[in-house]
Amino acid sequence: MDILNHLLAGFATAGTPVNLLWAFVGCALGTAVGVLPGIGPATAVAMLLPITSQVDSTASMIFFAGIYYGAMYGGSTTSILLNTPGETATMVTAMEGNKMAKSGRAGAALASAAIGSFIAGTIATIIVTLFAPVLADYAVRLGPPEYFCLMLLALTTVSAVLGQSTVRGLSALFVGLAIGLIGMDQITGQARYTGGVPELLDGVEIVLVAVGLFAVAEALHAVLFEGAVKESENKLSRVTMSASDWRRSLPAWLRGTAIGAPFGCIPAGGTEIPTFVSYAVEKKLAKGENLAEFGNQGAIEGVAGPEAANNATVTTALIPLLTLGIPVSNTTAILLGAFQNYGIQPGPQLFTTSASLVWALIASLYIGNVMLLVLNLPLVGLWVKLLKVPKPQLYAGILIFATVGAYGMRQSAFDLVLLYAIGLMGLVMRRFDFPTAPVVVGMILGPLAEAQLRNALSIGEGKWTIFLERPMSLTLLCVVVSVLVLPRVLKKRKIAALI
Amino acid sequence: MSFFSIKKNQEIILSTGIIALALGLALGASGISSEAGYAGIGPNFLPLLVSAGLFLCGGFLLWEAWSGGFRNGPDPDPSEGTQEKPFWSGMAWMSVGLLLSAALITTIGFILSCALCFACAAHGLRQANAGPSQRAQPQSIRSWVVDTALGLAISAPVFWMFTKFLSISLPGLTKSGWL
Asked: How confident is the model at residue A238 (pLDDT cuts 50, 70, 90)?
């Protein structure tokens, strides 16, 4: 019953008019950035990080959380109506959703995506409510060696396992770690790589790196390479679902949620795997006419399942963030940065030291999901108008917001030059298919992992065997090794089987 | 020079750059104290580890670039296949916009410098969107005026919102901070 009391207190905090307004603005803004191509939740939250210097922590976390999952609702609208998916998370939705829209069933696809997102988001929020405090209780007992191994796991999966090439992922990770090194060493206060520039003692701002890598690089890529790309837009039909749509969607939503939720909980990040798994499952389970629709007229299960999986993963990804302080994606890494701006370190103690903040945040997830259902079902026509914004003005506008974010943080014109330089780096990375998430996650998680590593070694009096002596950290190390090795062995086997 | 050899050269330059970065990091790490305390590793441990890791990655990428290009590339994207050449002059316009606003933001204020950045970037993107056949034609004064006005119409409310509601200081046009 303790949880219920906390949750009710959370609703009381989140339900004040001001906080409701923040949640609403966050959800609306999140939907907008989800719909608009070229800008995602990570960019939007990063650009708005300067508000952490003025706005109260609870309000701004509610606001950021609204942007975070609002974008997941908005992203499906773009991927169904345009032939270019807005975000990686909605790539799978685009496969069937686009086909449905082409055969005049855009409305049903949008409805199934929105309702599925709502159901999955709500179920996942219940999971967060029930399990996060339990995990936090357990996590209090973990020491620095275990934390270091958990962070190592997060860094490994985000760089080496997800993405096309391990070596490019690792290169990106090391670049991120190197950026994270700039500034004062957390333990001894020693300055590293500052080159005598006093501004660099505090380290490089997350805003700069995230906005440069995502927004500026995106705009540069658009002007350099996407000029001649023509987009086609599908017509919006009435947003309703027939009885058979409901019958086919409902089990798909639930299956998608069941597939997606566990993926968010483990520090193995990314929505690509759960959405693809969900799609594969739906295709496998489909029979007869429904199966024939896959890849032809577009099957509604192929929208409902992945979309639910996506939202479930995104919501439960808050569990490792809040209880362990470990981000598994770009956006959660930046949310962690937002916490740090308030001097709050997410981790098991968060549930005791900042209980009112955490529970208000969780309560706002319930509220936000309802808001988003309203924003995305009856009002979907409004968001579709955003797709009409011409590309030149859209990207040029994004650059204005990038300037606000980068300049607002420290009021330094030099930061704007740095922003451009990071944008160029992002452009090169994108051109040669280097993933960007490891840079951001590495930069934020790197210093934390280093501190845990050195604390762990201090406990072990300088002996590395400390990681092998403790059962939990040994287990985690084995997991790290297996996520590195298993995919390769399986691949070899598959190739061998084919020959 | 064929397309593939250009790509190969670019990849070689990029991998060499990564190796150079790794060496630079190692050089910087040599100046960091190694005082370890109880941990046995000091503040210079991670810098050395990162530079070693980056060095290995760069070396591996260099080998990949030599022997047939980076592996596991993205699936050839049909939309990118139609793109004949990078549109450098558009990129130049956008860069000019970004750097000019960085240079001028403290003197002419947030609103004007952002409107300028918007107009330059939009100009580059317009040309890019127009396609190769019409790119050479000069653009009308009208589109510049429209873009500048649009830039003002976006940056003015943004400035107002951020400074008034969120009390984030952005440089105004006048010292009083009204604009």
From this structure: confident
Which domain does A236 fall in, by range? 2-498
Q: Do B67 and B111 share a domain, yes or no?
A: no
Q: What is the pLDDT of residue A175?
A: 94
Residues 30..69 of B with a Cβ closer than 8 Å to A: which?
32-33, 35-43, 45-47, 50-51, 53-54, 57-58, 60-61, 64
CB spacing of A227 vs B128 below 8 angstroms: yes
Residues of A in contact with B128 (CB under 8 A): 222-224, 226-227, 392
Task: Please indicate, yes or no, if residue B79 is contained in any of the structural domains.
Answer: no
A219 touches chain B (CB under 8 A): yes
**Cβ(A141)–Cβ(A403) below 8 Å:** no
- Structural domain count, chain A: 1
- Residue contact B131–A193, C-beta within 8 A: no
**A9-21 CB burial, b ≥16 within 10 A, e <16:** ebbebbeeeebbe
- Residues of A within 8 A of B150 (CB-CB) are 393
Q: Report residue B21's pLDDT band, with 50, 70 and 90 as the boundaries.
A: very high
Q: Which of B10, B54, B98 to mutate to test the interface with A (most CBs of A within 10 A)?
A: B98
Mean pLDDT of chain A: 86
Query: How does DSSP assign A249-261, residue by residue?
Result: HHHHHHHHHHHHH
Can you give the residue range of the structural domain that contains B7?
Answer: 3-73
Same domain, B93 and B156: yes
Give the pLDDT of residue A176: 93
Position A85 scores a pLDDT of 57
Q: Please give the full DSSP string across A161-204, using - where no structure is assigned.
A: ISSS-HHHHHHHHHHHHHHHHSEE-TTT--EES-TT-GGGGG--
Judgement on whether residues B128 and B66 belong to the same structural domain of the protein:
no
Residue B174 inside a domain? The answer is no
**Partner-chain contact B129 A170, CB within 8 Å:** no
Do B35 and B101 belong together in one domain? no
Question: Does residue A220 carry a pLDDT above 60?
Answer: yes
pLDDT tens digits, one per residue of A181-202: 998 887 788 888 887 777 778 8
Domain boundary among B33, B49, B73: B73
Whether residue B26 is found in the same domain as residue B52: yes
A403 in contact with chain B, both atoms CB, cutoff 8 A: yes
Label residue B79 by pLDDT band (50, 70, 90).
very low
The pTM score is: 0.86
Structural domains in chain B (count): 2
Identify the three-state secondary structure at position A233. strand
Residues B90 and B151 in one domain: yes
Q: Do B11 and A432 touch (CB under 8 A)?
A: yes
The CA–CA distances, whole Å, from B80 to A391, A431, B3, B43, B128 equal 17, 11, 14, 45, 14
